[in-house]
UniProtKB/TrEMBL annotation:
Cellular compartments annotated: Cell membrane
Alphabetic keyword roster: Cell inner membrane, Cell membrane, Membrane, Transmembrane, Transmembrane helix, Transport
Keyword field contains Cell membrane: yes
Membrane-traversing stretches: 29-50, 56-79, 86-104, 110-131, 138-157, 177-198, 227-248, 283-305, 311-332
Membrane topology, from the record: Multi-pass membrane protein
Designated name of the protein: ABC transporter permease
Pfam families, per database record: BPD_transp_2
Main localization of the protein described in the UniProt heading: membrane
Highest taxon of the lineage: Bacteria
Length: 334
């Protein structure tokens, strides 16, 4: 035994140090490994139902809206802020788009454009409150989210708007192109745009710089407040798109339909920060995080697990996500 210890000391790699060396690897690739393990286990336990092309397309379709809203949230988080209003905004804007078509009689494209602009405007308001008034983003967006809930009930009286929704609007989410659901194609387009904006444009570089060090960014001439407002507007527009696509999928505007997307979006974003990069929030990582949640939900549904297991799974995933994100940042620190 003494010889083994001496040998370990001589090589400079004791069993303890070897264990420590594994932690940075897990912090960077643990989520991808976890996703692969989940797919392997579900495929082994349900070889007929789970590992099929149709089921994988179904998983992507189920994950598409969560990826869109989480992608927008990622931009806000990269800039160093949080937006707790996105779920409430998505619910309200899903009701609003149906109301504009059914009650006001607006054409489908005009109603969609109007709702996207409203979503961006909500993000603008959040950004102004945070940057110009100086309210913490958690408090600011929680407050605006609560106001939006009230506006939602005032607009719809709490009742779904279902009668008279145009078929052209419903077909946006329910239609398919080359066998691929429209929601999946829209999600791919949105994620591609967000990735290009964040990773390949000057505004994206400013967003990352502000999130890394706002004081240094301001001293270097970056308009920090404007950049943060733009990030909130992107987040709000993605929430609006999620809400209207959800309304299209349901064929109605329902008061609280998208409220649950808040928790899953944060879980996806924090899981994503522990994917491929050392604790950094990024668009591609968020996609992996959302896919982990979608695969988990799909597996639970295939095995007929009670609904409460979904809440347990989602809460546990959020805790694991924050833990892995913190671990990644710890080992990325010099």
């Amino acid at each position: 035994m003494a010889e083994n210890i001496k040998a370990g000391n001589a090589s400079g790699r004791t069993p303890f140090s070897l264990r420590l060396s594994v932690l940075p690897f897990l912090a960077k690739y643990g989520t991808i490994i976890g996703l692969a393990i989940m797919i392997a286990v579900f495929s082994f336990l349900a070889p007929v139902a789970f590992p099929t092309v149709s089921n994988f397309v179904n998983v992507l379709n189920q994950a598409s809206l969560g990826i869109i809203i989480a992608g927008g949230l990622t931009v806000a988080v990269i800039v160093g802020e949080l937006d707790l209003s996105i779920g409430f905004s998505a619910s309200f804007l899903g009701v609003l788009v149906t109301g504009l078509m059914v009650w006001v009689g607006l054409p489908v494209p005009i109603a969609i454009l109007a709702v996207l602009l409203v979503g961006a405007f909500i993000g603008f308001i959040n950004g102004v409150i945070v940057t110009k008034i100086g309210v913490n983003s958690v408090i600011a967006t929680l407050g605006t989210g609560t106001i939006i809930v009230g506006l939602n009930f005032a607009y719809s009286s709490g009742a779904p708007i279902a009668m008279g929704v145009p078929d052209a609007f419903v077909n946006i989410a329910l239609g398919r192109l080359w066998g691929v659901p429209h929601n999946v194609l829209i999600m791919v387009a949105v994620i591609a745009i967000l990735w290009v904006v964040v990773e390949r444009t000057s505004i994206g570089q400013s967003i990352q710089a502000v999130g890394g060090n706002p004081v240094a960014s301001r001293l270097s001439g970056i308009p920090v407040d404007r950049v943060k407002i733009i990030a909130f507007m992107i987040c709000g527009a993605c929430a609006a798109l999620t809400g209207l696509l959800l309304a299209s999928s349901l064929g109605s505007g329902t008061t609280s339909a998208a409220d649950g997307y808040l928790l899953s979006a944060f879980a996806a974003v924090f899981l994503g920060s522990a994917t491929l990069r050392d604790g950094e929030f990024h668009i591609l990582g968020t996609v992996f995080g959302a896919l982990i949640i979608a695969v988990g939900f799909n597996g639970l549904a295939i095995f007929g697990a009670p609904t409460f297991y979904q809440y347990v799974f989602q809460g546990a995933i959020l805790i694991v996500a924050v833990g892995l994100s913190s671990l990644g940042r710890l080992y990325a620190a010099p």
